[in-house]
Amino acid sequence: MSFRLGLTGSIGMGKSTTADLFRAAGCDVWDADAAVHRMYDVSGRAVAPIQSALPTAVENGAVSRDRLKELIGQDPSVLKTLEKIVHPLVAEDRAEFVSKSEADILVFDIPLLFETGGNKTMDAVVCVSVPAEIQKNRVLARGTMTEAQFEQIRAKQMPNEEKCAQSDFVIITDTLDHAREQVEAVVVTLRKQIQNA
User: Where can this protein be found (predicted)?
Assistant: First the structure.
């Protein structure tokens, strides 16, 4: 049985970079966002069921995220319809990952881990964190959203302090070297626990 480590953190906190560091330390990583992207892509698992429920959301054989945003904006109940389709498919994808992996530590990169209660299925949880100012600067530097959109996303997520308080480990991602040191320390700690279990 592999050790299940949840990896979470709000937008712009350095979660993807931290996931890569866990990969480099010999862990297998499952990325919830990447799973959804695969499913929305041409011939992805979610395309046909979404097309039958929300026909206008599919363009050129793939699910259009922009179109979904518009539909949800017009009718918030669309989100529930979407979740009913996508959540079971995501769970299936995750189960396949678990059955194929041979690593001793499996990292589950899930942005809304606490919000969805996913933390209850993990053996431990890591939360990535940086001060709010750095978080905001990072997100706005990407040039993909406005400050208002960023604040909207942040408002939907559990406050960072709460996530950190509920996590077993907190990794401060202020610099890459600092993050790497902390990831390696977490992996060493967990491998000791696994050996002694």
Answer: Cytoplasm
